[in-house]
Amino acid sequence: MSVNLQRMKTTFERCSDVVILPWHYGPDYKYNAFSIYTDALIQKKEHNYFKDSLQDLVPHPIGPGTTVTPEDVILFFNNKGASDHSAILIDDFNDAVNRVLDGHIVIFIDHWNKALGYKAIGLETRQVTESTTEPVVQGPREGTVENLSKNLGMLRGRIKSPNLKIETIATGGETKTKVAYCYLEGKVNPEMLAEFQRRITRLKNEEVLETSYIEEIIEDSVYSPFPQYRYTERTDVAAASLLDGKIVVMVEGTGSVLICPGLLVELLQSSEDYYQRTVISSLIRIIRLFALMIAIALPSIYIAFSTYHPELIPTVLLLAIINSREGIPFPAVIEALIMEFFFELLREAGIRLPRPVGSAVSIVGALVIGEAAISAGIASPIMVIIVSLTGIASFAIPQYNFAIGLRILRFPLMIFAAFLGIFGIMIAFLLIWLHLANLRSLGQPYLNSIGPFIPRQLKDVFVRAPLGVLMRSPRNRHMRKTSK
């Protein structure tokens, strides 16, 4: 024990939060032991659990008037005896160190080449509340938190089936973050699961602090502006994805849940689509499609029409545009780039500022700068309207990471429109569609349901069929085996 004690002191030298507590037990307290734990991680009531109740852990009588001895303790735990707390036998020093850092109380007893570990983690975490990134008018309010065990428990509470498999891995480096991935056996595509497991093994030597680290490590195309995976903070969305044959990834210390794979049609869907009546949900999806086109193409269409194709604009509207642009020193493309840049700058500033002032600054700033730009003759009123409509349309996209991709594509589209007009926009869209047709997510075509075109799957793409029709369809409609 003295050797183990010295090694632990050396390993945790200058670690003030790690407590090493020597103690004694037995008749006349002649037997030695010591406990080691991370004070900030464990529950305070567990500190002296083993020390205070060591004799009670052995259920059989040792003899009248006698007390527990090291031999009794060793025999008891080697035989896997039951106690109030489940003990883990540790026979590797590095494993003992890792368990101390993972919220265990580790106990060393003299004359025994093993250690005992008790899970006693009691780290304070955020309480389960409604998701702030995916609010809904109707539906569950339960959102994930930073505690992995709580998140897995909420997911298991929604899918009460032994087919729900949860596998856990520990990442490498200094963080040794715990990562869990879940799938529903019988629903998930076996080839897709095997490919995911092959990619996830890369994490064993990587530092992982958040779910987005995993996304970039396992995605198919790192430089694509389109996200190949979805994020959620709602357990009902994660459960529905599992029923659809997806793989759900959770990371200790973050509330973001990664859904693999993420297809284009799913990035335009919201959980509330299934909590509203079919007519309302279908109408909202159609509105989102229009918002998608506005968010990506409205500024470039304005540039192309006003610069190269004014004959396509109705006469009254054309006269209004000419009148509003009178005295503007920049061509339409420079004007659009400047206004888009400052709009994106204001949006980013509103996110980074403290919450009480962030929204006020972003809204007031947009109004003030827009009005000042018009008064100074730097921007026309029509351009301010177009940039504002583009920003509003991007807010209507349910997935934030998908909306960011549209914001990026907006700028090259404006450049294409400035050089070639409507033909430039056509070329740009052709390149985008070629990229999307070639893009895959965990081996699945990114345009699944659209390309390859599968008519029977369209009942839950652009519109939502009644739930009775969807429930009679195969749940894993997007996960059918496809050729690579």
Radius of gyration: 30 Å
Number of strands: 12
Distance between the termini: 58 Å
Number of helices: 17
Q: Sheet with the most strands?
A: 5 strands, antiparallel
| Alpha-beta classification | alpha+beta
Strand order of the largest sheet: 1-2-4-5-3
The percentage helix is 40-55%
The rough form would be described as: elongated
**Residue share in β-strands:** 5-15%
Mean pLDDT, to the nearest integer, reads 83
Family: Belongs to the GerABKA family.
Organism: Cohnella suwonensis
Protein name: Spore germination protein
Pfam families: GerA
Structure description:
By secondary structure, this protein is α+β, with helices and mostly antiparallel strands. The protein has 3 domains: 118 residues, no CATH class; 115 residues, no CATH class; 169 residues, no CATH class. The chain is 45% helix and 13% strand. The protein has 17 helices and 12 strands. Strand 11 and strand 12 form a beta hairpin. Belongs to the GerABKA family. It comes from Cohnella suwonensis. Keywords: Membrane, Transmembrane, Transmembrane helix. InterPro entries: Spore_Ger, UPF0353/GerABKA_families.
